[in-house]
Amino acid sequence: MKTKLKLAIQKSGRLTEKSLQLLSECGISISNGSRSLIASAQSFPLEVLFLRDDDIPEYVENGVADIGILGQNVVLEKEKSVQEIRQLGFAKCRLSLAVRRENNYTNISDLNGKKIATTYPKILAQYLAENGVNAEIETISGSVEIAPSIGLADAVCDIVSTGSTLLMNGLKEVEKVISSEAVLIANDSLSQEKQELLNRLLFRIDAVKTAKNNKYILLNAPNDKLEILSNLLPGMDSPTIMPLAKEGWSSLHSVVPENQFWEIIDELKANGAQGILVTPIEKMIV
Ligand code: PRT
Ligand code: ZN
Questions:
Q1: Which residues have C-beta atoms less than 6 Å from ligand 1?
Q2: pLDDT (tens digit, 9 = 90+) per residue, 170-194?
Q3: Confidence check: pLDDT of 34 > 60
Q4: Ligand 2 centroid distance, CA of 60 (Å)
Q5: Cα 227–228–232 angle (5° rounding)?
Q6: What is residue 237's predicted lDDT score, i.e. its pLDDT?
Q7: What values do phi and psi take at 29, rounded to 5?
Q8: Can you list the alpha helix ranges (DSSP code H) found in 63-148?
Q9: Looking at residues 263-286, what average pLDDT do you find?
Q10: Domain ranges of the chain
Q11: In degrees, to the nearest 5, what angle opens at C-alpha 43 toward C-alphas 41 and 46?
């Protein structure tokens, strides 16, 4: 039988849809209408295992799955021997410490002797040790944010994204313990055949990620401005320049990183660019 790469993703939760979307952007579609535990991809030698996110590190460590997609927070907490090979840019959040809003917290040493509720005892213990804080950790499995109001703990250490859960529970965020996003992890000792399949998948993931971080830009300019405008564009290589029907004018095409986008647009305008068009890129291979 032909070797297939086994990918574990979250069965149902915040990461499921985005994980499947990433596969689909990589040209890999999964038919899992019946929501079974395992599904085969149509156009790539890949099998997808649907699991609870907490179980993914262990399954990747022991080889039941070759690779997995899950939050960095869970990877760190589980302390399994797996390799983090790509950050995927979605499910961004942070693990933070929070106390009651009326608490006049000044710094981390205020937590000495206090009880902190969390579902991330290992990450928290390490953070407290690094900061020389001696506090009691109360490990609970869910609804961490209600622990202070029911008298179970003085503080919480929980995942925060917008902050509204903390706010609704009368808590305020006081320290960021870690930042997290979805990552791709891999088993430490993949066979050469599986490593080759993984490299093919990574090639696609990187093309999708690079495309998302860049925009395609088209602009018109008088020919005597082309050199200065070209120098303003970082581009993949040198920009494409094509003559316009209008005498003495050209159209210039290039790629601009998303994070420098507005700055570059301002400079292009200031240096004579007109009719600037910007479009998303679907795939980008560098
Ligand atoms: O069933 P299973 O065990 O697979 O899922 P789960 O319930 O453990 O995980 P799930 O689906 O809730 O989250 C999966 C991953 O998404 C987490 O491990 C994080 O890496 C990431 N993520 C991103 C989040 C959030 N944002 C998030 N906001 N995980 C949880 N939350 C929760 C948080 O626990 C808190 O209750 O949302 C609340 C805070 O959100 P805000 O927006 O109010 O601050
Ligand atoms: Zn979970």
A1: 10, 13-15, 52-54, 71, 73-74, 91, 93, 158-165, 180
A2: 999 999 999 999 999 999 999 999 9
A3: no
A4: 16
A5: 115
A6: 74
A7: -110, 145
A8: 72-78, 121-130
A9: 92
A10: 5-90+181-211, 93-180, 214-280
A11: 40
Domain 5-90+181-211 sits in CATH at: 3.40.190.10
Segment 69-114, tens digit of pLDDT: 999 999 999 999 999 999 999 999 999 999 999 999 999 999 999 9
Taking alpha carbons only, the member of 147, 168, 18 closest to residue 92 is 18
What's the full length of the chain, in residues? 286
E strand intervals along the chain: 5-10, 38-40, 46-51, 67-71, 82-87, 93-100, 115-118, 136-139, 155-160, 171-180, 182-187, 214-222, 240-243, 249-257, 274-280
Residue 88 CA to ligand 2 centre (angstroms)? 18
The pLDDT assigned to 184 comes to 98
pLDDT in tens, 120-167: 999 999 999 999 999 999 999 999 999 999 999 999 999 999 999 999
Fold agreement (93-180, 214-280): no
Tell me the ligand closest to 169's alpha carbon. 1
Mutate to test the pocket of ligand 1, among 9, 11, 12, 14 (most ligand atoms within 8 A of CB): 14
Q: Are 86 and 184 a contacting pair, CB within 8 Å?
A: yes
Q: How far is the CA of 27 from the centre of ligand 2 (A)?
A: 28
At residue 260, the pLDDT reads 87
Cα-flanking dihedrals φ and ψ of residue 269, to 5°? -60, -45
Superfamily of structural domain 93-180: Periplasmic binding protein-like II (3.40.190.10)
Domain 214-280 - what CATH class? alpha beta
Give residue for tokens 């009368």.
170
Buried b vs exposed e over 266-275: b needs ≥16 C-beta within 10 Å?
eebeeeebee
Classify residue 16 by its DSSP letter.
H
